[in-house]
């Protein structure tokens, strides 16, 4: 049966992690990861999460099946994060949400649903994009194309190239957008540019599939949802995949949600009924623990307050690391301009380092980064940043 099965290529990032694990050097640093670490280099367990978990354990609740679309309070909380309190769209019944297995799970159930609805549409993702976008939509049966996005010369968005590409797409092309904190570049369009992008979606009847995996890591919870609210406010039907993996530091609990905004209440009812069939035939219903904890935090004012503070601490720490990296590179005599690193947002930075420089960083200094030059700024800390800055200075 299995004799003809070929060995699949290794996931490049996981491969790098394995290599890092096997490295015996005491001063090694892993900037190849996609995870937030605190200043002690640990994945934090947020206090808001810890308190919710204690309450949950004390309640000793049975673990029956959840509804197919998950916990109602969780879904409501996810909608509020995206659209704000008192959203008229929610009041009109145009918004539906299903708890999902992380952002990845949300993208996948969205992709499966769309494949039924728009079997002949293509999917457009940014060039570059999160490395799983292409594979995920191809697996769901779509042809995937890439729209121009990153401009290495300016360390900014190639907005003209992007707009021109979007304008020539057939109506109903599905376009994946990073709502904030673009992975892997850290470079987002300005709000003015987003308005131009949204206008093309309207004119050309493109289908926005927003991916928001870092809400709260850019400028703040509200600010980072501005693009979702811009598109929603224009009356565009859309899909949004939310991930809470980073914002709650609950990576392994698989906490995410798929939200869709439709034309009216009746449409939403029908769409949700179809989405539930997708879920039912994939994994039946989502797991209880992570969703319950997130729901408790989102719906308990004291825990919510605490969570937003902890999120702000993570955001501020990343920004401080950006500033320090730029300053320390200068202090090490680097003449090249790295000011752009301060302006990037979220956990990642396209550092501008070449593949050869990344190789030297790893081989000569034990500093691991992705071949594209992507570094995880959230893996820098006060204990390793001097060493990293010095190592980068040496390979430049
Ligand atoms: N989208 C983007 C842009 C991401 O960076 C990630 C996670 N690295 C995901 C989706 C997937 O999130 P999750 O881990 O919650 O599945």
Automatic annotation (TrEMBL):
Keyword Membrane in annotation: no
Keywords linked to the UniProt accession: Aminotransferase, Pyridoxal phosphate, Transferase
Stored InterPro entries: Aminotransferase_I/II_large, Asp_trans, NHTrfase_class1_PyrdxlP-BS
Signal peptide extent: none
Subunit and partners: Homodimer.
Superkingdom: Bacteria
Occurrences of domain Aminotransferase class I/classII large (ranges): 27-392
Cofactor(s) required for function per UniProt: pyridoxal 5'-phosphate
Protein name: Aromatic amino acid transaminase
């Amino acid at each position: 049966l299995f004799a003809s099965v070929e060995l699949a290529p290794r996931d490049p990032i996981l491969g790098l992690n394995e290599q890092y694990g096997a490295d015996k050097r005491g001063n090694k640093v892993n900037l190849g990861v996609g995870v937030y670490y605190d200043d002690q280099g640990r994945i934090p367990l947020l206090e808001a999460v810890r308190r919710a978990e204690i309450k949950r354990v004390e309640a000793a609740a049975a673990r029956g099946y959840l509804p197919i679309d998950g916990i109602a309070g969780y879904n409501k909380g996810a909608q509020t994060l995206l659209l704000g309190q008192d959203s008229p769209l929610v009041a009109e019944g145009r918004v539906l949400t299903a708890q999902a297995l992380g952002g990845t799970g949300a993208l996948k159930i969205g992709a499966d649903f769309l494949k039924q609805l728009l079997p002949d549409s293509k999917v457009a993702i940014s060039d570059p994009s999160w490395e799983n976008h292409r594979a995920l939509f191809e697996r769901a049966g779509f042809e995937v194309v890439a729209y121009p996005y990153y401009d290495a010369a300016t360390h900014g968005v190639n907005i003209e190239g992007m707009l021109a590409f979007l304008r020539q797409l057939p109506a109903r092309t599905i376009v994946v957008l990073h709502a904030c904190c673009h992975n892997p570049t850290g470079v987002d369009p300005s709000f003015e540019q987003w308005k131009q992008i949204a206008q093309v979606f309207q004119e050309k009847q493109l289908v926005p599939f927003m991916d928001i995996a870092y809400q709260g890591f850019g400028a703040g919870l509200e600010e980072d949802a501005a693009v979702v609210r811009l598109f929603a406010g224009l009356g565009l039907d859309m899909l949004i995949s939310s991930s809470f993996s980073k914002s709650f530091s609950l990576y392994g609990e698989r906490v995410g949600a798929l939200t869709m905004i439709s034309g009216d209440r009746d449409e939403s009812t029908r769409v949700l009924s179809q989405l539930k069939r997708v879920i039912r035939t994939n994994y039946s219903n989502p797991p209880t623990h992570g969703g319950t904890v997130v729901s408790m935090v989102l719906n308990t004012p004291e825990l919510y307050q605490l969570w937003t503070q902890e999120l702000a601490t993570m955001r501020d720490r990343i920004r401080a690391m950006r500033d320090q990296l730029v300053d320390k590179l200068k202090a090490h005599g680097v003449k090249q301009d790295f000011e752009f690193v301060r302006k990037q947002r979220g956990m990642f930075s396209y550092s501008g380092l070449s593949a050869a420089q990344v190789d030297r960083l790893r081989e000569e200094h034990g500093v691991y980064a992705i071949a594209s030059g992507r570094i995880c700024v959230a893996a820098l800390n006060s204990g390793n940043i001097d060493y990293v800055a010095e190592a980068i200075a040496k390979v430049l």
